[in-house]
Amino acid sequence: MSFSGLGTSLVQLAIFFILMFLVSKYALRPLLATMNERTNHIEGQISVAETNRAEAEKLVAEQKELLIATRAEAKEIIDRAKAQKEVEADKIMDKAKSQADQMLAEAKKEIELEKVKALASLREEVGALSVQLAEKLVGETLDQKKQANLVNAYLDQVGRLQ
Predict the structure, then answer these.
(1) Would the N or C end of the chain have less CB density within 10 A of its end CB?
(2) How many whole angstroms separate alpha carbon 153 and alpha carbon 159?
(3) Rounded mean pLDDT of the chain?
(4) What gap in Å lies between CA 132 and CA 148, rounded to an integer?
(5) Looking at the 3D structure of the chain, how many domains does it have?
(6) What are phi and psi of 54, to 5 degrees?
(7) pTM over the 0.70 mark
(8) Res. 110 pLDDT band, cuts 50 70 90
């Protein structure tokens, strides 16, 4: 090997180190800085995504709890409405029964009153007919007291026969 080849090799080696220094300072460092920024950005995005996923899971859990609570409340409202419906139905039935019983009692009273009136009217007619018959048979006129006694005696006798 020659000395002149050594000088060229040293110059080439010096140029290589100078180029390495320049490439590392102006090309490699900005490239590494950009790659580090990109890595940091990606890590930040992953962190944000994990945070968002955790919040979404939390919201889903809250929604499930709210749905369960809403269903329970709806069931409670339906149960209360059913109970109230039954109470109202019982009240209506009791009121209708009470009114029916009252109407029945009034009808019975009216029937009894009409029966008493009919019996009194029948008594008067039977009495008048009896007096007329007795007058024809006896041939004399009866006074009011005798007529009443005769009618009562006749009706008592008819009542015993029935």
Answers:
(1) C
(2) 10
(3) 85
(4) 13
(5) 1
(6) -65, -45
(7) no
(8) very high
